[in-house]
Amino acid sequence: MAFVNNDFGDVLLHRESVRDFDPSVKIPRAELQQMIAETITAPSACNLQAWHFVVVDDDAGKDKLRSYFMKFNTPQLESCSAMVQIFGDTLAFKSYRDLWNKAYENGQITAEKRDEVLRTFLPLYEKAPKQVLVNDSTVDGTIAATQLMLIARAHGYETNPIGGYDTTKAAAAFGLDPDRYVPVMAIAIGKPAKNGQDEMKSARYPVDQVIEFA
Ligand SMILES: Cc1cc2nc3c(=O)[nH]c(=O)nc-3n(C[C@H](O)[C@H](O)[C@H](O)COP(=O)(O)O)c2cc1C
């Protein structure tokens, strides 16, 4: 994999939120698509992959974001090269059968294994209360968000995860069914403006305050 930054320690441990990007930087759509393709290698519960990505990289898309973002996130919204609004897909299980059929057709699993997986997991989702579907897809979307932030660094970009927006308006802003798609977070991506990275260093609690061995 030809990453711009292939130093895992640096990618992982030197990530920090950037809120002031260089607005002149354009990320080619092919690269944005590639970053999402690398993002969706992330794990998900039962491999349901209950995530959906809306990638905004132009002013028309930013207008939609402006309609529901909180004011304090304006600098990132206006300066980033792309904003990826991540949703959880509460109806992802509807295509679950196709996924496993394809794996069977590709010779990745036997018909028996496919049937066993579908017998075991599909009813769990088909009968699940809405709140379970919301929680599960939010967890999947959150894992994808983390992976996207690291993948973006591997591509030489910085990010800011954003939850400061009107969650009741996010799906409808993009013509998505709000009953189906639950907003998880948005990820601003770009190159830092000069000094964009230095304005706020975040602190962490000492590890012994957040850990216990049981
Ligand atoms: C779910 C989530 C929502 C966040 N929402 C915002 C936001 O709306 N605006 C913002 O500037 N930063 C937001 N952040 C970034 C956090 O403030 C930041 O990750 C935290 O302070 C740690 O700093 P670091 O990312 O530089 O390590 C969010 C982070 C997460 C994980």
UniProtKB/TrEMBL annotation:
Keyword Oxidoreductase on entry: yes
What is the designated name of this protein?
Answer: Nitroreductase family protein
* Superkingdom, natural source: Bacteria
- SUPFAM superfamilies linked: FMN-dependent nitroreductase-like
Question: Which keywords annotate this record?
Answer: Oxidoreductase
The molecular function terms in GO held by this entry are: oxidoreductase activity
**Which family, according to the similarity comment?**
Belongs to the nitroreductase family.
- Keyword Oxidoreductase annotated: yes
Q: Which residues does the UniProt record annotate as the domain Nitroreductase?
A: 14-191
| Documented EC number(s) | 1.7.1.-
Q: Which Pfam families is this protein grouped with? A: Nitroreductase
Which Gene3D superfamilies does the record match to this protein? NADH Oxidase
